[in-house]
Every structure is written in C-alpha cells, then in structure tokens.
Design a protein that fits this description.
elongated, alpha+beta, three-stranded antiparallel beta sheet, 27 strands
Length: 371
C-alpha cells in the first residue's frame, strides 16, 4: 500500500477563498468595463480602488499558482506518455521477439525499449511460435533492499493475441482471444499457461471434441494439497458450453476436467448432470452435482468412482427405498452402478459457493441443456 498525503481542510479553504477572490476581481473589472457609473465611483476614490484590486489580485494568486502547477504536471505527464509510445523505424530484437519495422511499442520506462509493456503489429508478426498482432507484458521489478535502486526488470506474465486458430503444444487455441504465457524467472523461456480452445480439439480416449470456447490451463507442478500431497495433473479443461458433453459414460454440463501428460482423463473435479440419469439402483435428476472421487476421498473408494450430490429442489431416489437422497447428501457409486457409500457433502468434499448477483441486468449464464 502506498501512503498518500491528503490536503488539509485549511489548505482547501484557502484554495476556495483564493478562487472566490479571483472571481470577485473579474466581476469588478467587467463592471468597470461595461458601466459608466461604476467607473465614476472608482474615479472618485482611485487609491482605495487600486489597493482593493491589489489585495484581491494577491489573494487570487494562490489559486492561479495552483492551477499553473496542475497545468505543468499535466503537460509533463502528457510528454512522458508520448515519449513512452514508440514506433520502430527498423527491425530489432526486443524481449526475445524480432520486432518488425513499424511495430508500435508502449514502454514502462522512457527511452528503454526492453521495458516495453505492449507491442502492436500490423500485419501480424512471428513471436513465441505464433503469429501475433499484439503482445502485452506484465513486468516484475526487483529493488535493492537498502537503497531501493532498481536492480532488474523482467516479464512474469505475457499475453498474446493473434488471428484465429493456431497450434500450441498440440492444442488448437483461438488466438483471437487472450493466450497467456508465464515466465518463472529472468532469462527463462516463457511457458504456455492458458488459452481458449478453438473447435476441433479431440477428446483423448473419449468420443467427440472439446467445444469451442473451452478454457485450457496448463498445471505446471500439478495440484498440491495443503498436506503436501501432489496430484499429477498436467492440464485442466473448463467447458463453458451449456450443451451437455458426453464424457466417461455420462452427459455432463460445464465440466471441469483434469488430464495427465497424455491428455487422458484423470478426474472430473466439478460438473452437473445435463440429463436425468439412472445408474444401477439410483436415479438422479438433471442438475445434480457430480465429480469423480478425488483425494483424499480416493483413499476410501476407487479413483474412478462417481460422487453424485443432489441440488435442491432436486432429489435422488433409490430403488426399493421410499426415503429420497436430498440436498446435503452425496452418493458414491462405482462406474458399474454399485453404491459404495452415502455420505454428507462435507465428508465427500463437496463444496457449495454462494452466488451473488450484483447487477440483475447483467447477462446470466444460460442453463445446461441436455443434447
């Protein structure tokens, strides 16, 4: 947090009083200019009039000085802003990118091209294995702990925009939307971190393709739990399409899926049933929350077990039993339908988050649809 000195009440009152004196002086001068009677009264006592004018002018000088300083500051900011916007006259390599002539840069530090925070290309230029029209960099700055002098500055996050679908590490990403790279430390190679998938990405070991608009995240070190346990997750896929997606034998709405390095399904961490489901002796309505048994629940049940959690007002029913399974309770089932356990949501690790609508006029997510 940066401390900011607020102006005192006394200084604000002085500023308003100075402005009032200036207004009074202007009105007086206008009356002298437009009214013969006012000029006659002024001529009757010229010394008093001149003294009063000097007093008002002196009082107004504080406000005029303040406005002059504001104008100087605005002019300096405008000059710095213009100086930080550069168009390259000739091609050169900056930040590991061969910038073509005509590239438009925005610099973090005036006169230092290597500190560019944004680069625009027309037409698109090659960068980081893609053809991009825009690069946006977020810079990290290290300072000396004693002198606070700047030691180094390097990007920790890079955002790219291009034109249409492009291949990134075997995925077809829609580069018209933001693609993110991460940089671990100065001098290290930027690594792919996140993009929005274009259409045409096959589901490995499954049927169909990931819908266009699906979010893809690369999980560098896997998923680490608070007790130190690490899940070998390489990719996380978040489906945003409301149309139910066939996955692992179920039709799931907006699933969040974890994949291994070969893009095989490891877990479904969050989803809802797009269609009513009968599995073994259990029947679930559409909208039931569903996931696979993850850590630490996997220590009690097989890893491919499903966890179904009804959401009010929906209820699950079990053949031969009159008591339904209500909201707050989860059913653990094997893929063949065998019921392995009935747990509370807390025991099953099922989380529910409150939904807060700030503006009711904002567009809401459409409900999941059964294909």
């Amino acid at each position: 947090m940066i401390p900011v000195a607020l102006p005192s009440i006394e200084s604000l009152l002085l500023l308003f009083a100075s402005m009032g004196a200036g207004v009074c002086l202007l009105i007086w001068l206008l009356r002298l200019l437009l009214s013969r009677r006012a000029r006659s009264r002024f001529a009757a006592r010229p010394v008093l009039g001149v003294v009063l004018m000097l007093v008002l002018a002196l009082a107004a000088s504080f406000y005029l000085s303040f406005q002059y300083q504001v104008w100087q500051i605005d002019r300096e900011f405008a000059r710095r802003d213009a100086a930080r916007r550069v168009t390259l006259a000739q091609a050169q390599t900056l930040g590991g990118v061969l910038m073509p002539a005509g590239a438009r840069l925005t610099l973090a530090k005036e006169g230092e091209l290597e500190t560019f925070t944004e680069a625009l290309f027309d037409p698109p230029a090659p960068a980081f294995g893609l053809r991009v029209s825009r690069i946006e960099r977020y810079l990290h700055t290290d300072y000396d702990s004693k002198t606070y002098e700047e030691l180094r500055r390097y990007p920790h996050t890079i955002h790219l925009w291009g034109e249409g679908p492009q291949q990134v590490e075997g995925w077809l990403c829609d580069t018209s939307q933001k693609l993110r790279l991460r940089v671990e430390d100065e001098g290290t190679r930027p690594e792919f971190a996140e993009c929005v998938l274009a259409g045409g990405n096959a589901i490995e070991g499954g049927v169909g393709r990931w819908p266009a608009g699906t979010e893809l995240l690369r999980m560098g070190g896997g998923v680490v739990y608070t007790d130190g346990h690490r899940e070998p997750v390489n990719w996380m896929v978040r489906v945003r399409d409301p149309l139910g997606l066939p996955l692992a034998g179920l039709t799931l709405g907006r699933p969040t899926v974890q994949l291994d390095e070969n893009r095989q399904l490891l877990a479904v961490s969050d989803a809802e049933l797009a269609c009513p489901l009968t599995l073994g002796e259990m029947r679930y309505p559409a909208g039931t929350q569903v996931k696979t048994a993850g850590y630490p629940l996997r220590q009690r049940f097989p890893s491919q077990s499903w966890v179904f959690s009804p959401v009010a007002p929906g209820q699950a029913t079990r053949a031969g039993q009159s008591q339904p399974v209500n909201d707050g309770t989860s059913v653990v089932q094997a893929p063949d339908g065998a019921v392995l356990g009935v747990l509370s949501n807390e025991e099953a690790g099922v989380l529910r988050f409150a939904r807060i609508i700030v503006n009711e006029t904002d567009p809401q997510e459409p409900p999941v649809r059964c294909p």
